[in-house]
Design a protein that fits this description.
CATH class of the largest domain: Alpha Beta
Bound molecules: 2-acetamido-2-deoxy-beta-D-glucopyranose
InterPro entries: DUF604 (IPR006740)
Oligomer: single chain
Largest sheet: 8 strands, mixed
Structural class: alpha/beta
Keywords: Membrane, Transmembrane, Transmembrane helix
């Protein structure tokens, strides 16, 4: 509108009568613009007049202010982004972590599913009102971005956090509760993690919580988001993803991303082994893209692998994939344990700074390149004598004095090192004992736990025993 009006109306200098007519026109135009902007202002500053929020939300907010007890699973409302056509296949991932007795939330579908899993106990909702939004890419991105708004609008009592995830996201809910428990849900928080692949963050944002890894919105932030969400969806119609729309909208409120390294978008190709064998010192919160990646355990299905990992997680949630190092100084070995998942034995002495660096067993998401990633990696050597011997979780037992996990040697098809002494030593099995890690551990500045070879590192019937324990104050992990 304004564009054409700014162009000159006359070629020759205007006469006095023309000037008056012009002034009147200008005056009318100014009035028109003023009244239109006034109308727009009043509608956008009170959008709940358009989409009224239920009355009881006020009381809910009041109740959540009063209840200051520690955050537990009942305070989280999950919103899983699903679709009617794929839910039937994807539900297996959600069923791995969804406990029908305690988990609250819904999978949000575009329409009523034709077939439902017989024993499904995850309730679903049909997304409403999303088709009227303009979009350049997929309409489902609009629908999924709106889940946080629709979840909030349900007005369910005692919700402190709205946690969004995909239908192929696996949450470790005990650790999620530990992480969210550090933050006050009455303040505005946007919690998650960016992508592992630099190219993805460059393309989207380093300040965006990637949706597949899942993200958490505090009640206070959800209340503000609900007011402006539909306006954002109109403004950001040209965006690609749903998480990008939420990101843009959250940044209109001025809330930055609070990074938690346990959320894993897993924007990588190949084998995620390296990351989970050298996880950062943060509780494991989520995994994503499991059917796009190699299974976590060799020669197993993705679902079986997850069940295996969860069998260890369920007896010591705070410790899952936490790394400890020890050295066998007599043999000159370095041993790296990722509790509940894997152990690596190197027949050389590697410094702690190297052991905590993930082996690059994967490529970037978009370009399938060797990097860059948002963390350092070290290459997996092609020399079989430099490669670590790998052990994977086999059995989990829980006793009064902590857990015992056993790890079995994995013999891949790759060439073996001829001179490698671990082959002569014939370690086939490693037994690891550890006390249960208190979730309170994550409230303080973490320190990696130490490990100790038991029985002087003796190997009996192909089996070694290692104990994980708190490091002593003066203790260091030194070659
Ligand atoms: C919560 O509600 C009670 C009455 O129902 C009121 O007295 C109190 O001031 C409210 N608190 C807040 C923080 O709004
Ligand atoms: C969670 O905490 C609330 C109080 O804030 C309590 O009423 C409820 O029983 C707790 N639920 C679980 C599962 O611990
Ligand atoms: C999901 O699990 C069921 C059994 O629980 C199985 O029959 C089905 O094939 C699985 N679906 C996929 C896509 O893996
Ligand atoms: C849910 O509760 C029932 C009854 O208390 C119990 O038998 C079942 O094992 C529970 N399920 C899970 C997944 O905890
Ligand atoms: C795990 O170990 C326990 C105790 O040694 C044993 O009873 C159980 O059968 C083992 N489970 C598997 C799957 O090997």
């Amino acid at each position: 509108m304004s564009h054409t009006r700014l162009e000159p109306i006359h070629d020759s200098p205007p006469k006095l009568g023309d000037v008056i007519v012009l002034l009147i026109r200008a005056g009318v135009l100014v009035c028109l613009v003023a009244s239109v902007s006034l109308a727009l202002h009043s509608t956008f500053s009170k959008p709940d007049r358009w989409f009224p929020l239920p009355e009881h939300i006020r009381t809910v907010q009041n109740a959540s202010v009063i209840d200051n007890g520690p955050t537990n699973i009942s305070h989280i409302l999950f919103g899983i982004a699903g679709s009617a056509n794929t839910w039937h296949d994807r539900i297996n991932y959600s069923m791995l972590w969804w406990n029908p007795n305690t988990t609250r939330g819904f999978v949000w579908l575009d329409k009523r599913p034709r077939i439902l899993h017989a024993d499904t106990s995850i309730p679903y909702q049909i997304s409403q009102g999303w088709t009227r939004f303009r979009h350049v890419h997929s309409a489902s991105a609009v629908r999924i971005a709106r889940i946080v708004y629709e979840s909030f609008k349900l007005g369910l009592p005692k919700v402190r956090w709205f946690v969004m995830g995909d239908d192929d996201t696996v949450f470790f809910t005990e650790n999620l509760v530990t992480v969210l428990g550090k933050y006050d849900h009455n303040l505005m928080y946007y919690i998650g993690a960016c992508s592992e692949s630099v190219e993805q963050n460059v393309m989207h944002s380093y300040n965006m919580a990637f949706g597949g890894g899942g993200f958490a919105i505090s009640y206070a932030l959800a209340a503000q988001l609900a007011k402006i969400m539909d306006g954002c969806l109109k403004r950001y119609f040209y965006f690609y993803g749903s998480d990008q729309r939420v990101w843009a909208c959250v940044h209109e409120i001025g809330v930055p991303l609070t990074r938690e390294g346990g959320f894993h978008q897993f924007d990588i190709r190949g084998n995620p082994y390296g990351i989970l064998a050298a996880h950062p010192l943060e509780p494991l919160v989520s995994l994503h893209h499991l059917d796009q990646l190699h299974p976590l355990f060799p020669n197993q299905t993705p679902i079986y692998s997850m069940k295996k990992l969860i069998s260890a997680y369920s007896i010591d949630p705070a410790r899952i994939v936490q790394q400890s190092f020890c050295y066998d100084h007599n043999r000159g070995w370095s041993i790296s344990i990722s509790w509940g998942y894997t152990i690596q034995i190197y027949t050389t002495l590697l410094i702690a700074a190297d052991l905590q660096m993930p082996l690059q067993t994967f490529h970037t998401w978009r370009s399938w390149k060797d990097g860059p990633f948002t963390f350092n990696t070290r290459p997996m050597s092609s020399d079989p004598c430099q490669k670590p011997a790998l052990f994977f979780l086999d059995n989990v037992t829980n006793g009064r004095s902590g857990s015992v996990t056993t790890y079995k040697r994995y013999e891949g098809k790759e060439a073996k090192c001829k001179t490698e002494d671990i082959n002569h030593a014939k370690v086939q099995k490693i037994k690891v004992s550890a006390l249960k890690l208190d979730p309170e551990y994550w409230k303080n500045v973490p320190r990696r736990q130490c490990c100790k070879l038991m029985n002087g590192g003796s190997i009996k019937d192909g089996s070694m025993h290692i104990r994980i324990r708190k490091c002593r104050l003066q203790e260091t992990i030194t070659i």
